[in-house]
Write a structure and sequence with these properties.
The structure holds two protein chains of two kinds. In chain A, the strands form five sheets. A four-stranded mixed sheet of chain A has the order 7-6-8-15. Chain A has a four-stranded mixed sheet with strand order 9-14-10-13. By secondary structure, chain A is of the alpha/beta class. The longest helix of chain B has 15 residues. Chain B is elongated. Classes of the chains: A alpha/beta, B alpha/beta. At the A-B interface, helix 1, strand 1, helix 2, helix 3 and helix 4 of A face helix 1, strand 1, strand 2, helix 2 and helix 3 of B. Strand 3 of chain A pairs antiparallel with strand 1 of chain B, so a sheet runs across the interface.
Amino acid sequence: MTLDNKYGVPTVALHTHVFEKVVESVNRVHGMPRAPRAFVPQPVMGKTAAQLRAYIDGKDPLSGRPVMQEVIEGLTQPIDDSGVVNEKFAHAATPRLVDADSEENLQQLFLEKNWTDKLPIVMPTEKRVQEMLAHTSHKPDEVVGHMRSTHFREYWEYTVEKVAVNAVMAGARPEYFPVILALASTGVTARGSTSSSAAAMVVVNGPIRNEIKMNSGTGAMGPFNHANATIGRAYGLLSQNGQGSSVPGVTYMGSQGNNYAYNNVTFAENEERSPWTPFHVEQGFKASDSTVSVFTGCRSTAFTLGVREHFWREHVRSMLRGLDAHSQPTFLLDPITARQFIDRGSFDTKEKLIEWAYENSLMAAKEYWDYQLIQNYIYPRATFGEEPYASKLKAAPDEMIHMFKAEEIHVVVVGGETNGYWRIMDCNYQKTVSVDAWR
Amino acid sequence: MADSTNATQSMSVLNPVGYPPKITPKALAPRLDSLDGKTVYLVDPRFDDSGLFLRQLQSWFADNMPTVKTKFIEMNNVYTKDDPVTWEKIKADGDAAIVGVGH
């Protein structure tokens, strides 16, 4: 679209057919609803040259017209923009209230409008929203942030009151509100549209954990604590509503979906039982600060029990090798396991464990560069000269290269010491923000 | 009975949806009269074997519209980033563009 509108070059965009609604929606919000496009069948990935040529020789699966006829016409036929000026470009401002109705009917309405996570919600009445708002010093109409479902979509805006509405819907108690506002202030969506079906992960640190009785011990990542459960749910609801929507096929393209997204793996770090520096202190905050840290891209988890005396190195290497090379590993360690890592590897700081993990997650260059996600997102950056990828690209095919960057590996301590189980979560750390700023 | 009463009683609630950006209509470039003798850039966003696809598109032009000159070009970075260097080159050297296959 940039090439066509800004540089004056007539352009046709080709897409796979499953993105029809996405393309239509994106063109509309960018003010070019008639931008020429044509569709070929999904998938392109993995097809042979002959199969791809058949796509091109064939018909657009949506219009039924020859693909190349649509392409040629898109470059040479005048664009019929009659009526475009009359299209409703400016959205009506989102009304503050929903038409009054019975709770039963409103539950159904919220469900049909895709404003929920398909579970029943608490109705956001004026009274409940006011109670939520009473737990922050910020004014209801203050803009908290902006979100979008993916990089090529438009940003939507939300206020303190909008965050409160979604917090009520999630069943959160008013005393949790500063944490939820802090999450909203990150501008990081928990409802990314990525076809990889990613979820978010939330780690809370500092005094707020105990003030609102969050769980960092037994069952911390499970459905056993009200604050953990509803803060994570509120973050998800705020994300999908704050960014306009999260609708499969339109603003959500996760092929398989992700159960983590129900409450976005929300828990507190077990600072009291951890032998190491709390996560938020590593990010530059004081131990007495209350913070929330957001990770995205959560898809896969590797796990094992304990850190074995003889082959722990091999076991951990295997866990790391099991991740996609485009991952960013975060170690989620029960306190038992954290101390075992100190005993086995002398990792008396998180940084030493991270450095070991970095040095021991290696892969042959030819295998690394063949990963589809590496091809999509790292290879272009390597050819553009970005380090360390450009240097990796110079490696001989059988040379062992690092799978990850050291700064993209993280460690968080969580669990109740019922045993030494631990996990490596594939997720991307985004940022840590103050909760205190939203009290 | 109490639940039934509450479920049917009319209530007023707030809308949870955020505020959309204002959308401004944008003009598209004038289309060409014909592609004969023109240079068409085939722009590879480097996503999911898109380059292989565009090579086949290039061969389609060679087979069916040999008077059209096609130039294959890869974006300079991942498709998520704007690429003014490539756009300027296409504007300077080309007459039209086909981008694909991406999201």
